[in-house]
Specification:
With 272 residues, the chain is an alpha+beta fold. The chain is built from 4 helices and 12 strands, in the order H-H-H-H-E-E-E-E-E-E-E-E-E-E-E-E. The termini are far apart.
Length: 272
């Protein structure tokens, strides 16, 4: 009996040791293994979502900063553009003031093409021809402007007697007796420069002949020409009018004067 009891105790001890060893190994393995994390519902989502506002805030700040930068750049570009326009305007104004008038081209007008040599030659021919047609010299001859007798001669070297004025004075023209209504013709080809009424000579026509010469027709009425007209020799320019108070005793007449550079010359030296 004792022998059996002793063997039982030994077996029990061995079993206890085995259980202790197994338990120890289990505790060792349990201690070395990482503890499982206990997840709290919603915690991970909050942690995951926490950086998002910061990220959004960062993005928002970046967008606002970028928008502010673009707006400042646009504003600065606008200012620079306005300054450039102002500077360009000042430079253009200075260039316009300094440039000769014939070099300034109106804005929006098409630039005219330079005339060709042929056009220049044609213009030169026309100009020369027109000037040549109005040329007048000491050797030129003129027509009688009206049929009649000379009752007052040209006299600038001595005075002559005027019946109406009852006095002697110098006379820078000739006075040709003619009935009222007589036709007055152009004595030499010329351009009508002026038509005006004079107290002494009545309605008077002034005509440029060229080269500084000028013909003057006074005591006219019903003038048939106008200022600017080019009148050929022999063309009707008007009619003899009633005499002014300066020539009442001399009677109706044509007052005819020839000037050279505004100084009177004797018309009789040129009449054929």
């Amino acid at each position: 009996m004792r022998k059996n009891q002793k063997g039982f105790l030994i077996a029990l001890c061995l079993c206890m040791l085995s259980i202790s060893g197994i338990f120890g190994v289990y505790q060792y393995q349990k201690g070395s293994a990482p503890e499982p994390k206990t997840e709290v519902p919603g915690q991970n989502s909050q942690v995951a979502e926490r950086p998002e506002p910061e990220k959004e805030a960062a993005n928002s700040s970046g967008t606002v900063a970028q928008a502010d930068t673009e707006e400042e750049e646009a504003e600065q570009a606008k200012i620079d553009t306005e300054e450039d326009i102002y500077k360009i305007g000042e430079a253009e104004l200075a260039r316009t003031e300094d440039a000769p008038a014939d070099e300034i081209i109106a804005e929006g007008e098409p630039e005219q093409e330079a005339p060709t040599d042929e056009e220049t030659e044609e213009e030169s021919v026309e100009t020369v021809g027109e000037t040549g047609e109005l040329a007048f010299s000491e050797s030129s001859r003129i027509l009688w402007p009206v049929d009649g007798d000379v009752i007052l001669n040209y006299s600038m070297d001595k005075s002559i007697y005027f019946s109406t004025l009852n006095q002697y004075k110098y006379h820078p023209a000739i006075v040709i007796s003619a009935a009222v209504g007589s036709e007055v013709q152009c004595a030499a080809r010329g351009r009508v420069s002026d038509i005006k009424v004079n107290e002494e000579t009545g309605t008077t026509v002034f005509m440029e002949l060229g080269d500084g010469y000028e013909a003057v027709y006074g005591q006219l009425k019903e003038v048939a020409v106008e200022e600017g007209d080019i009148v050929e020799a022999g063309t009707l320019i008007g009619y003899v009018s009633e005499p002014t108070k300066y020539y009442t005793l001399e009677g109706s007449n044509l007052y005819f004067q020839l000037l050279k550079k505004h100084k009177p010359v004797d018309p009789m030296g040129f009449i054929e």
